[in-house]
UniProtKB/TrEMBL annotation:
Metabolic or biological pathway: tRNA modification; tRNA-queuosine biosynthesis
Annotated keywords: 4Fe-4S, Cobalamin, Cobalt, Cytoplasm, Iron, Iron-sulfur, Metal-binding, Oxidoreductase, Queuosine biosynthesis, tRNA processing
Function: Catalyzes the conversion of epoxyqueuosine (oQ) to queuosine (Q), which is a hypermodified base found in the wobble positions of tRNA(Asp), tRNA(Asn), tRNA(His) and tRNA(Tyr).
Subunit structure: Monomer.
UniProt-annotated binding residues for [4Fe-4S] cluster 1: C185, C188, C191, C245
GN (gene name): queG
Protein name, per record: Epoxyqueuosine reductase
Enzyme class label: oxidoreductase
Pfam families: Fer4_16 (PF13484), QueG_DUF1730 (PF08331)
Similarity section: Belongs to the QueG family.
GO biological process, one term: tRNA queuosine(34) biosynthetic process
Length: 307
């Protein structure tokens, strides 16, 4: 077995031991197919007020600009599908935000993986990325054979659907590279038909400025009144396009204790949320991604749902 093949097996085995669903590897280089798509998406102002999406255009498309000498992009998936969900008569939080902020959980696992690579293989340089730098996570995961891009623009796998996080290590090590899988969306339009704000403007294209997740998390100003009554009770994020996807009938509960929610969170009714205090908010979401919107942001979202 060649050295790259041996190293690849080592890395994938350790990724499994650390609890990742799967690991795929691509050759680091310019994402030619993504460049015109990203440019058009930005030119059509689909980023809304997410101005950070306009920054570092070249770095988003070329990992060698983020990590000098980069040779491989190691893409990893981590399941977050919960064992239980919120009660029926509640304002809804996206499932990914039930437990501890995924940035902390995954960054720790990536550091362990990078340390393992250095201990077992040698002087390897690289960086870990978790949705906080200009890296096109889904494009690299698809290129690495971990799934295909669904019509809702989320990565999909036949085995597990789409309820998982995507992260990367970009390293200066030659490895064996995986190949993309084929698209299995077929003629299905479930996600497009179900989107409450019609944010999926065409198959595989989501207008970020119309997405409920954008309004409830990213938007700092008032939510436009024309979307009143269209949020389907989502107060932080939105899972509609994933919930209706036929492939997500294969989702299974995660095994990461840090992603388990505070039991109190699952029991709160709409009335409880409407009366929530800042003290309760801080207790419930101490290390949660929900802190991204903040107490005032969550109250704004709840008020919008009530109106």
């Amino acid at each position: 077995m060649s050295r790259p093949a041996t190293n690849t097996d080592l890395i994938k085995s350790e990724a499994t031991r650390l609890g990742f669903l799967s690991c795929g590897i691509s050759k680091a280089g310019f994402l030619e197919e993504e460049a015109p798509r990203l440019e058009k998406w930005l030119n059509d102002n689909m980023q809304g007020e997410m101005s950070y999406m306009e920054n570092h255009f070249d770095k988003r498309l070329d990992p060698t600009l983020l990590v000098p000498g980069a040779k491989s992009v190691v893409s990893l998936l981590l399941n977050y599908f919960p064992k239980q969900t919120q009660r029926e008569d509640s304002y809804k939080i996206s499932k990914y935000a039930y437990g501890t902020d995924y940035h902390f959980v995954i960054k720790d696992k990536l550091k362990q993986l990078l340390n393992f690579i250095r201990e077992e293989i040698g002087d390897v340089h690289g960086r870990a990325f978790v949705d906080s730098a200009p890296v096109l996570d889904k494009a690299w995961a698809a290129k690495s054979g971990l799934g295909w891009m669904g019509k809702h623009s989320n990565l999909l796998t036949k085995q597990l659907g789409s309820f998982y996080f995507i992260a990367e290590l970009i390293i200066d090590l030659d490895l064996e590279y995986d190949t993309p899988v084929t698209d299995h969306c077929g003629s299905c339009t479930a996600c497009i038909d179900a989107c409450p704000t019609q944010a999926i403007v065409e198959p595989y294209v989501v207008d970020g400025s119309k997405c409920i997740s954008y309004f409830t998390i990213e938007l700092k100003n008032e939510i436009p009144s024309k979307f009143s009554g269209k949020f389907d009770d989502w107060m932080f994020g939105c899972d509609v396009c994933q919930d209706v996807c036929p492939w997500n009938r294969f989702s299974r509960a995660h095994r990461e204790p840090l992603f388990d929610p505070n039991p109190e969170l699952l029991q709160l009714s709409k009335g409880d949320w409407e009366e929530i205090t800042e003290e309760v908010f801080m207790r419930l979401f101490k290390n949660s991604a929900v802190k991204r919107t903040g107490f005032k942001g969550l109250k704004r979202n709840i008020s919008f749902l009530k109106d």
